[in-house]
Design goal:
CATH architecture of the largest domain: 3-Layer(bba) Sandwich
Strand content: 15-25%
Largest sheet: 7 strands, mixed
Number of domains: 2
Number of strands: 21
Bound molecules: flavin-adenine dinucleotide
Oligomer: single chain
Length: 376
């Protein structure tokens, strides 16, 4: 192995987490390198739908040491977030090697980490920060007949905008934030929208009483209350803003918000879709039982056909696949449960935690913890 491939600190992934960690290392004048499989920073945001903006307020969603420009709106749209990330990497003169996909990581006997790319390039480092993201590949439910539907059937990652949906019957599957936003946009562009909802969901309005719900959640988090009290106040907040949605077919989970977050389930941020559901403009349908070539069969045995189906059913991470050994540090969903593990010195995971104050807020906090650990 070539000695020039040794770096004290190596970061895999130039998404928001990788960039945050890099800025913290730059700030402390520590050497590092970033390896990124795509050809740009924050690549995963590029792939999402055109109208996407952050659901979290810009006040608490900037990366370390670099605030969002003042003229950016409260909820930063995707194109401005991409611009911000590019400027961020430039500001700290980040050494990023693009087009380098890592597919194997292992610890050597001297405790250094060996990282091998798809094209067999090897890198060695003392500290390895894995920031490859929680949302790498689209999750599709395992439904009988999925591949046989004769009309367009896509995952939300392939959805770009509501073009050509005017007057069309569209089924959106799921009730997470993406499902909520896509259903709203489709309706505004003349589609007849139905939503198939299987799971119960905590819901927050994007804004309530003129304030961002995200800012309220940050405030609640900063109170540092026992989790039962945090859950109680978030439940009161939901009850007094969103109210009961069970009567329109969207149940509230038995689990509290903090238990849901631990399981990796974030609350839905509603942009106006719930109001359309309450007004019976958007229909709620049960879970899908089976897909036939020409129609969809629901759990209540009703069958219906749609011009288009969009599965807004979330994403999966592939991080555990990078490790041939050490499988015990990953949970059943393949996510690392902790930022670092005593048995594997020098290995850190950033961006895999769901946080009451938002994932990016968590990335900020966790990158500071990792830095403290590295500094010793
Ligand atoms: C639609 C959507 C909207 C969201 N909105 C918000 C929001 O408003 N506020 C908020 O706090 N959070 C939000 N999140 C959650 C989260 O903050 C974002 O997903 C954020 O992009 C996470 O950053 P990341 O760096 O952890 O992951 P990613 O942005 O996915 O970055 C990971 C990077 O690693 C690279 N990579 C992956 N595998 C490899 C490999 N093997 N080798 C080399 N490179 C690799 C990828 O190409 C990518 O560039 C949102 C998530 C989604 C899906």
């Amino acid at each position: 192995m070539k000695a020039e491939n040794f770096t004290e600190n190596l970061i895999i992934g130039a998404g928001l987490a990788g960039l945050a960690m890099a800025a913290r290392l730059s700030w402390h004048k520590m050497p590092y390198q970033i390896l990124e499989k795509s050809d740009q920073v924050a690549h995963s945001w590029e792939k999402h739908y055109d109208s996407l903006s952050m659901q979290t307020s810009k006040l608490y969603s900037a990366l370390p040491h670099f605030a969002f420009p003042l003229h950016y709106p409260k909820y930063v749209p995707k194109n401005l977030l991409l611009e911000y990330c590019k400027n961020y990497a430039k500001e700290f003169a980040m050494p990023i090697v693009f087009g380098t996909e890592i597919n194997n990581i292992k610890q050597l006997t001297d405790k250094n980490w060996q990282v091998v790319s798809k094209n067999k390039q090897e890198y060695l480092c003392k500290n390895l920060i894995v920031a490859t993201g929680n949302c790498q590949i689209p999750s599709m439910p395992d439904i009988e007949g999925l591949k046989k539907y004769r009309q367009p059937l896509i995952h939300s990652q392939e959805y770009k905008n509501a073009e050509n949906c005017d007057g069309k019957k569209v089924l959106v599957v799921g009730f997470g934030t993406s499902a909520n936003e896509i259903a709203y946009e489709l309706h505004k562009n003349g589609a007849f929208v139905s939503m198939s909802v299987q799971n119960s969901q905590h819901i927050l309005y994007k804004d309530s009483f003129g304030f961002s719900s995200h800012e309220y959640m940050v405030w609640l988090y900063k109170m540092n209350l026992p989790s039962a009290m945090t859950d109680y106040f978030s439940m009161l907040y939901q009850r007094n803003t969103v109210g009961d949605a069970a009567n329109v077919g969207i149940n509230s989970p038995n689990d509290s918000l903090s238990v849901q977050l631990k399981k990796g389930i974030e609350p839905t941020v509603d942009v106006g879709t719930l109001d359309l559901i309450r007004k019976k403009i958007i229909r709620i349908l049960p879970a899908i039982k089976k897909i036939h070539p020409k129609d969809i069969e629901f759990e209540n045995k009703n069958k219906e056909s749609f011009d288009k189906i969009i599965f807004a059913t979330g994403y999966q991470t592939l991080v555990s696949k990078l490790f041939l050994q050490m499988k015990e540090i990953f949970n059943e969903k393949g996510r690392p449960e902790k930022l670092f593990f005593n048995d594997y010195q020098g290995l850190y995971f950033l961006g895999f935690r769901h946080h009451l104050a938002g994932t990016i807020y968590g990335i900020n906090e966790d990158s500071a913890k990792i830095l403290r650990q590295i500094l010793g």
